[in-house]
Structure formats: structure tokens, C-alpha cells
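Quick question: what would this complex look like in 3D?
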Amino acid sequence: MSEFLQQLLNGLSLGAIYALIALGYTMVYGVLRFINFAHSDVFMVGAFIGYYMGKLVPENTVWGGLIVLVVAMLGCSVIGMVIERLAYRPLRGAATLNVLITAIGVSLLLEYSGQVFFGATPRTFPAVFPSVNFTLGGLVISSNQVVVIVVTALLMVGLQVIVYRTKIGTAMRAVSLNPKAAQLVGVNNDVVISFTFGLGSALAAAGGILYALNYPSIDPLMGVMPGLKAFVAAVLGGIGNIPGAALGGLLLGTVETFVNGSQWSTYKDAIAFAILIIILLFRPAGLLGKATIEKV
Amino acid sequence: MKSLSVFSHFALRALFGVLAFGVWNFASAEDAIKVGEYGAFSGKEAAFGLSARKGAILAFEEANAHGGVLGRKVELLTEDNQSKAGESATIAKKFVSRDKVVAVLGGNPSSNSLEAAPILQNAKIPMIAISSTNPRVTEIGNYIFRVCFIDPFQGTVLAKFAKDTLHAKRAAIITSVNNAYSVGISKVFREKFTAAGGEVVIEQKHSEGDKDFRAQLTAIKAAGVDCIFHSSNYTEGALICIQARQLGFTGPLFGGDAWEAPQLIEIGGAAVEGTYYSTHASPESTAPVMQNFIKKFRARWDGETPDSIAALGYDAAALLFDALQRAGTTDSAKLREAIATTKDFSGVTGRITIDQDRNATKSAVILTVKNGKFAYVETIDP
């Protein structure tokens, strides 16, 4: 039983990180209807900003860790907005495929510029947050796991509040529903889209820092696998749907962990993705997504 | 006819230029004996490649300072495989067709050597693997050699160490499924440990580049073991140590020579204290040949202390020079013959004899991490 609970906890903390990245995919998709493949590399940049900031603040302090987290989130939101302004805005109104290819291009650009600027050798991420282990019965909980789950939960609630309770959130939903009509009623689409990218990238940065805290070896290609998993999580939950992305991330992380701990660990990705296919067969729009009819 | 003469003037100069360049090129090819070295100089396996390259460069510079080999300079061409699958094969092809090298050094992780070796075997260019310990590497053909011991031996040593020194009865193995080295060494460890009366209670698997091992470690902890053997690389090794300690596992963890890198301690920190690994040679060894090598290495590389991979890189180059001298020519068949008959060659990593399977026979050492530094534990003979 304690092994089961331990695996569940391991799975939730891994899934929480997938969920954070998935939120960024889902938000951009919700507003612009395209997959921002560069998102997983903003995640990597976030971890590297954290790496350099971590050298400036004292290690193992809560406030030091919070400063690192906030600076990385701000830095990445700026990067996200710049990417949108330079790469995606000129293509607004172009065919979806063009934007998709551009997104892949930006992703590769970030990965390989990362290799130039940061070097391809893995770096050791500093322990910015203090780390302690609690024992609860047979269950061992590391404070990093708690931090991951708590930060993810807080950011997710914050995001729900922004999207449903604020003016800019209403504008985001308006643009998502019908960009032309939104413009007609006085919504500045450019500002709203910039904001969406900024917010999504900040979440990616938070994900990057939390990931690096748990697995303290970072390199410029570190975003590729988690990014892919998070994308799957977003689709699984129903792309464009915020609680769906969170649910998809947690589900994927948990399934992966349980398979990993069994004797079929070699097939962990195969099993996780098979589950995805089965779910999509029965619910093509994802777990929480609404099926919509594409207008031709 | 003025324009023609101007034209011919230029044409003549161009022709001379080509000739001069061609001759110069030819002369340099005649002068230096070219040797290729491939390895991971960037990416997640970079620690191995960089160490091996530093050792090899040192050997080449020394040889040139002493008048070269066979009266000619030796030139080392190095190419980075970026720790990526497929790159080593591309580099081997480049060495064969573009650089026309006499011999090739390299191959740290066995998977790299397994890619490059068939190409070099076909081209009949001798290859000396530096730290590829998978038996299959030299089975590829009679032009493929190595200066290190092989997995069965390392698996045997570690099983012996776990049983006799750690007094372990129940062991867990963690294997990287897409790493030829890891799969090979895990298999031998299981056989030998079981034969010695121990029990391998659980074997868990992961893939290269994985970072989350909590699931595997939770299952291992629940199975109740005395020790954990991880047979893959240092990055995963360090993360496994951290996560094992976080999950409250207190027994010893140990690995093979793929754990040997300063990054093990850098990433692992306090979690790798008291872990062990087996390797080819130790800088803590007091043998004069090792001490002499350390002195030379530190002088050349800004005071850096060499690890065993650097020593193997040096030995691979030195063994090649020795064979070239004995062959008296760069002819590949004769060079191959000379490398194959190497006997009691005095290398930094010990006395090396190339056996009939083109593997090196030599002893292994066990090191541990103590106060953030590697420390010598014991030497185990074949």
C-alpha cells in the first residue's frame, strides 16, 4: 500500500510539471488555434535563467528560490512576447501550416542557439530551494515534490482567475471565440495575443525551474521530451481547455510512473501513448474538450 | 594579341598556384602520419570524450617532441560525435574517404564503437577503442582492438566486490535498455552475483536521457535490497543516487566505469557520498608510471588531474606508436599485425597484452566518493 501511495505521489509530482507546460500549449491554442512548438524550448530557457540567477542568490533559502522563480518567469514572458512579435505576428492570417512550420523553426532555433550560448554539456542546477524529506508512515515526501505540486496548483488557480475574472481574460476569451468580432467591439487583438504568449511562457519558465529542481541536470535539449509529453497531455485533456490540460498532465505523469515501476518499464512511453490513443478514440475532443464543428 | 597574353599570364599563374598548392598538400600528407580520433566532446557523454582526447593529445605532442614516429610527425584529427547516435559512423566514413587516416582511436561508450567499427573494418583501417567495454566491439573484425578490459570482467569484479566487500546478499540492478554497455554489464553481474550465492531480487530499466527514476527506485525499495547496482552513465547515476536517498534508501549504490566523471559528484553532491565504481586505473595509485603521467598531464592541461579515461586515451595512442615502430611502416595489414602481437606493453593503466580476441588483459580498481573526492578502495585482478 505504501508503495502504491509512493508511486502515486511520484506520478503526481511528475504530472504537475507536465500540466504546467501543457497549460502554455493549451492557452496559445485556445486563442490562436495553433500549436506553439517553441513552448518546450522556452521551458529550457527558463531553466537556464534559473541556473544563472541561482548563482546570484544564496542557495537553500525560500526567498532566494522565489526570486529565481519570478525572474525566470518574467524573463521568459518577455522572450515569449518577442517570439510572437517577430515570428508569429507577421504570419497572422496565413495558412495554419505556415505558422506551424515557423513554430518548429523557432523551436530548433532556440535549441541550437542554446547549444551555442550555454554549451551542449549538461549543467548542474543549483539547489535554490531548501530541501528536506518528510516521512509519513512508509511514505517519503521530499519538499521539492511538495513545492512542485503547490506551485502548480497556485499557478493554475491564478490562471483560472485571470481568464475568467479579469478584463484581459474576458478579452482573451473574446479573441478565442471570434477575433474579428472582438476587434469590432474594441478589443486590441495584438495586446491580447502578446499577453497570452507572455503568460504561457511564464508558466513554461516555472515548469522549467521546478523540473530542474527535481532533476538537477540541465542542457539545451532538455525541453524536447517533457514538451512532447506535455503536448500529449494538452491533447488528452482537450486542447484549448485549461482544467483539461491540468488533468491530462497529472494523468499522463501518473500512468508513466506506474508503468515505470512495473516490470514493463521498457514500454512506458508505448503504454502511456496507447492510453492516449484509446481515450481519443472514445473522446476525440479530449477528456474535457467540447467537440466543435470546423467551419469550412 | 595583348588580351590573350594577359589571359595566358593569369592562366599560368593560376596553374602554378594549383601546382604549388597540390605539391604542398601532397608533401604534408607524406610528412605527417594521420590518425583520427572520434568521441563525444559535447553532449551528455562529453566527459568521456574530452578526457580521452586530452590524454591522446598529450601522447601525440610527446611523440612529436621526441622526433615523431618512423621519422615522421604524427597528426591527430579529432571529430565530435555530439553524444548523438549515428554521428560516429559518419565520422568514421569521413576519416576513411576524406582524411585517409592510418589508424583510428576512439569510441568511449560502446554504442559509438559499434557504429564506427564495421566501417573501419571494411576499409581495413585499424581501430583502437579507448574505453568501450562491450565484448561485441572487437568481435566485429580483426582490425578492431581495445586498450580497456571488457564487460564480463567488470561485471565479475563488481559481483565479487558486492559479495566480498559489501557483504551484500540481495541486490537490485538498474539497466539502461538502449545502451549496449549497460545491458552487457548487467547480464554478467547477474550471472556472477547469483553464482557467488547472492540473489538479484529485482531488475529495473530506464532509457538514455531519462531523469525521473523515482518509480523504479520505489519498486526497488519495496522489494527490500542491500545494494543497488546501476550499469549506465554518470548523469543518470547521479540522479539515481539523489532520488534513492530522497526516497530513504540507505544501502550502498555502485556502478561501472561509466560512472567515472567529475559530474557524478557535481550533480550528485552529498547523495553520491559512499558510492562505489569500478574502473581501469586510479590517479590515487602510487605506481611511478601513473605518478609520472599525472605530472605531465597536469603540466599540459592547467593542473587538471587526469581520470582513468584520460590515461586510457594516452595508452591507446602510445600503444599505436609502439606498434607503428615495430611494424616499421604505415601499411595497414602490417600495422594490424603489430598491434595484434602487442605483449606486456607498459601503459599508464597497467601492463597491456592484446589477447587473441583483440582485447586487453589487465586489472581493475574500485574507487569510492569520500568528502566530495574520488578515493581508492582496492585492486581486483582478472
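Answer marked as accepted. DSSP finds 13 helices and 15 strands in chain B.
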